[in-house]
Amino acid sequence: MKRFGVRVYKQYFNFAASHFLIFVDGTREELHGHNYHVRVSVSGQVGPGDMVLDFCRLKPVVRRHCDSLDHRMLLPLENERLSIEETDDGHLDVRFARPDGGSDRFLFPVRDTLRLPIANTSTERLAELLAGRILSDVRRDFGDDLQRLESFEIEVEEAGGQCGVCRLEPIEWDRLPEAPPA
C-alpha cells in the first residue's frame, strides 16, 4: 500500500528560549537557552488536489505557534519542585526546591516568561505541547481534511542532531485538551 505525507521545516519555524530541565533525582540543570527548530510531518491519504494536507495553509499555523514561544523563559507549571508566584510589581518569583532541602530563587519579569501546562521543558514535552496546539488549529481550519490523516508528528530540535519527537495518531486526537490560543 502506498503511503503519503507532507513535512514542513522552514527556516522560520524556530524560537529562541531559555529553560532548565528538572531531573528525576530532583536536581536541575543550569539556566540556559537554545535556538530551537521545529518540523511537522503529517501522513495520510491523498485527497482533493492530490495532497494529504495543503502545506501552504499549514505553514502559517506552525509559524504562529513557534513565534508564541520566541524570546521567553519557559517555565513548566506542572512540576512539583517549582513554585511560581506573581508579585505585585510584575515579576514571577520562581522557587526550585532542591533535594538537599534548600531552594534556588529566580525573579523574572512576567512579560519575559511563559508558564506552560507541562511538567518539564524537555524537547519531548515541548513537541507534545506544540503538537496539541497546532493540531487544535488544524482541526478548526482544515475540517474534513483531518479525517484522511493517519499521523501527526512534531520534532523540536534544540541543537543540531538532537531533537524530541511527539507523534500522535487519530485515536489520541480526541483526548487532547483544546489548546488555548498562542
Short structural description:
By secondary structure, the protein is of the alpha+beta class. It has helices at residues 55-69, 123-142, 170-173; strands at 4-8, 14-19, 32-44, 72-76, 82-86, 91-97, 103-109, 113-116, 149-159, 162-168. It is built from three helices and ten strands, in the order E-E-E-H-E-E-E-E-E-H-E-E-H.
Q: What share of residues are in beta strands?
A: 35-45%
Do you know the CATH topology of the domain at 4-72 and 118-173? Tetrahydropterin Synthase, Chain A
Low-confidence stretches: none
Calculate Rg over CA atoms: 18 Å
Largest sheet: 7 strands, mixed
- Put simply, the count of helices is 3
What does this structure look like?
By secondary structure, the protein is an alpha+beta fold. The chain has a domain at 4-72 and 118-173: 2-Layer Sandwich (Tetrahydropterin Synthase, Chain A), CATH 3.30.479.10. The protein contains three helices and ten strands, in the order E-E-E-H-E-E-E-E-E-H-E-E-H. Strands 1, 2, 3, 4, 8, 9 and 10 form a seven-stranded mixed sheet that branches. Strand 6 (91-97) and strand 7 form a beta hairpin. The longest helix has 20 residues, at 123-142. It is elongated. It starts with a strand and ends in a 9-residue tail after the last helix. The mean pLDDT is 91.
What are its keywords?
single chain; alpha+beta; Tetrahydropterin Synthase, Chain A; three-stranded antiparallel beta sheet; 10 strands; elongated
Blueprint of the fold:
Blueprint: E1 4-8, E2 14-19, E3 32-44, H1 55-69, E4 72-76, E5 82-86, E6 91-97, E7 103-109, E8 113-116, H2 123-142, E9 149-159, E10 162-168, H3 170-173
Helix pairs in contact: 1-2
